[in-house]
Amino acid sequence: MSVERNTREIEGTVVTDFQDRMSYGGYLDLDTLLSAQRPLSDPEHHDELLFIVQHQTTELWLKLILHELGAACRLLREDQLAPALKCIARVKHIQKTLTEQWSVLATLTPAEYAQFRGVLGNASGFQSAQYRAVEFTLGNKNAGMLRVFSSDAHAHALVEAALQAPSLYDEFLRLLARTGYPIPASVLERDVTTAWTYTPELVPVFTEVYRDPQTHWAAYETCEELVDLEDNFQLWRFRHLKTVERIIGLKIGTGGSSGVPFLRRALDLTFFPELYAVRTEL
Q1: 78, 139, 173, 235: least buried by Cβ within 10 Å?
Q2: Rounded to whole angstroms, how far apart are CA atoms 74 and 101?
Q3: With a threshold of 0.70, does the pTM exceed it?
Q4: Angle at the Cα of 18 (from 15 to 22), degrees rounded to 5?
Q5: Helix 217-248 to helix 81-105 angle, to the nearest 10 degrees?
Q6: pLDDT for 10-55, tens place per residue?
Q7: 10 Å Cβ neighbour count for 87?
Q8: What single DSSP character describes residue 146?
Q9: Residue 57, Cβ neighbours under 10 Å: how many?
């Protein structure tokens, strides 16, 4: 079937009657999804829709990241390393998409944002329960953050569950112990509700892995995948910082934080410090 007059004919087999069939919009519940963007500025500011879509799409990607990290943790507990790595690989691609998204928000100028920033009140990305759950699942836990979600039972439960559960790194280290690596008992029995901190006793374990990758390929590959996760997360944090700095400078954040200085301190937070420390030993 050729294209004539720059018009493509609809093939006869294409379904067009959806009275009793599942449609694209029905499957994705697009009526609900596309009605969730409700700008509050009055008169409505042209750029508020950009701001809302940016953050809503971020939340959708965070939902998928949590889905994949949760599966990866479960698979590590079941000693199924290969499928766990597949989940981690998908998360890495999502992270790259999230980082690229900042370039869209960066098209918002300070003057444009100032015209509708007031309608946000104290709403801030700092209050994203899914972001905090991702951070906790990767090991950067902070029980004090639960206070932010005290007025939202669902969000509080999500973040608290991530706080109470072993992190991805905890599950990986437990798997290594089960397969014969000399992981210290203090690591295996640690309080998983606390933030992971640098544990020098692990560096010799990883040094052995990195000095002979072929013998320890499964562990070596997983270590590098985790390093990728942290690198990607730090790039996201940095891009967030620079986008905020570009749009509001050194103003106080809508959620009450110091804004850019607060975001800058996040760059000092780490997930897998031993996997970076081992590089100095090689």
Answers
A1: 78
A2: 29
A3: yes
A4: 95
A5: 20
A6: 899 999 999 999 999 999 999 999 999 999 999 999 999 999 999 9
A7: 20
A8: G
A9: 14
